[in-house]
Amino acid sequence: MFETDSKNHRKSIYTIGYSVHSADSFIDILRKHNISAVADVRSQPYSQFKPEFNREKLKLILKQSEMAYVFLGNYIGARIDAPECYKNGKADYQLIAKHPFFRQGLERIRSGMQKYNIALMCAEKDPVNCHRAILICRYLRDNYVEIKHIIDSALETHSDTEKRLMKMFKLDQPDLFKTERERLEESYNRQGEKIAFKKDEGDEAD
Predict the structure, then answer these.
(1) Residue 153, pLDDT score
(2) 3-state DSSP call for residue 98?
(3) Can you tell me the distance from the alpha carbon of 8 to that of 46, in angstroms, rounded to the nearest whole number?
(4) Could you tell me which residues come within 8 angstroms of residue 16 by beta carbon, excluding any fewer than 6 positions away?
(5) pTM given for the model
């Protein structure tokens, strides 16, 4: 079953980066938050440095822990296989957000939340530096979804992540010419531009 916020009846969804975890600590933290399914949002579901998080191995580890695994990187990964979503070889998050693949991925998440308590999984520890927050959660957030980021063993609400994001670009203070909403969207756009995948990169990114 999915977790529901008893105060306002919103469905909860979590995100997590595995880079600071061993397989055991990863499972422990998922159990702590009653996660029943992991949605892998990496475009390339393999890790050079942490092979226990390779797709097939991770799926087996989760199954042994009675948790489901689904790969969604081909829908909502940061390296979308759609040339029209790139500008000068660099992924454009705003174009990705409009693509049918991405929209299908969000719908699969929303549908899955009816049955599972889901954690969106990527590599990056801090969600503010990861497409799971800057791209996926930006378009997943609404009045019916409560997003919670697992950082180490603590939780950060997505609204607090957004506050950190705005502070990064010194857009957290009132502005005569921009609304808070406009400043937040500008912060998303600027961070998306900063972290977006470039086709000539070869790192272990999202």
Answers:
(1) 84
(2) helix
(3) 38
(4) 26, 29, 30, 119, 120, 121, 122, 149, 150
(5) 0.91
- C-alpha to C-alpha distance for 47 and 123, rounded to whole angstroms: 9
Terminal-to-terminal C-alpha distance of the chain: 28
Residue with tokens 């992540």: 161
pLDDT at 200: 74
**130: Cβ contacts below 8 Å, ≥ 6 apart:** 15, 17, 122, 123, 124, 195, 206
Given this model, what pLDDT does residue 191 score? 98
Question: Class for domain 11-195, per CATH?
Answer: alpha beta
pLDDT for res 3? 45
List, in sequence order, every residue forming a beta bridge with 39; answer none if it has no partner. 70, 120
The predicted structure's pLDDT at residue 100:
97
Residue identified by tokens 């996926």 is: 136
**Closest by alpha carbon to 110, among 7, 10, 35?**
10
Q: Which residues of the chain have pLDDT under 50?
A: 1-7, 202-205
**Domains of the chain, residue spans:** 11-195
Residues 6 or more apart whose Cβ sits within 8 Å of residue 89: 198, 199, 200
